[in-house]
Write a structure and sequence with these properties.
mainly beta; OB fold (Dihydrolipoamide Acetyltransferase, E2P); 5-stranded antiparallel β-sheet; 4 helices
Length: 180
């Protein structure tokens, strides 16, 4: 009806899927304060802070500190995981930050597979598995952190088993650096 009449409409909902499918622009609010305003895709792809990242879709958040920035690399120290080397990024700042990345951007492998250098590879253990039709959702324990990884499902494809040791690959181009 709104599109038929061509009028601006404000619609308030807590249902993220409903908001993302009906809105041209969204405002994400926390405690009455607008955290971010933009298109649904912009909020999903480029959240302004950890609250927005978690509110709009599912996000993995690693909190820690950028310890060293030099050359083309930076070092991120995450409690429970340790130090991770990352390519330099314009949004990365020295000090406390959160790394945000979506579950569908993660690759998983077992054994001695050839590892793509565009990914950061971490060792983990599958703790939980949910088959959701189009994809299988895994909870992978990496150090003291639980990471959610979604893997596309194809006909006849067997999922990884619970308690399997895996390597998860985080696509560095999909990491968002969020201030804490």
């Amino acid at each position: 009806m709104q599109r038929k009449l061509g009028i601006t409409t404000v619609f308030v909902t807590h249902d993220q899927e409903e908001a993302m499918t009906t809105a041209d622009r969204m405002a994400v609010m926390d405690k009455g304060i607008v955290q971010q305003l933009g298109t649904p895709a912009a909020l999903f792809d480029y959240p302004a802070n950890p609250f927005v990242a978690n509110f709009v879709g599912t996000a993995n958040l690693l909190t820690g500190e950028i310890r060293q920035v030099g050359g083309d690399l930076l070092r991120f120290k995450a409690p429970g995981i340790g130090e991770i080397n990352l390519p330099k990024h314009p949004d990365a700042r020295s000090g406390p930050m959160a790394l945000s990345f979506r579950p569908h951007t993660i690759r998983m492998t077992v054994g001695d597979a050839v590892l793509d250098g565009a990914y950061i590879w971490l060792n983990g253990l599958i703790e939980h598995i949910e088959f959701l039709g189009e994809f299988t959702r895994y909870r992978v324990r990496v150090g003291n952190i639980a990471i959610t990884a979604d893997q596309a499902h194809y006909c006849g494809m067997a999922p990884f088993a619970r308690s399997t040791s895996v390597r998860i690959g985080i696509d560095t181009s999909q990491i968002r650096y969020l201030p804490l």
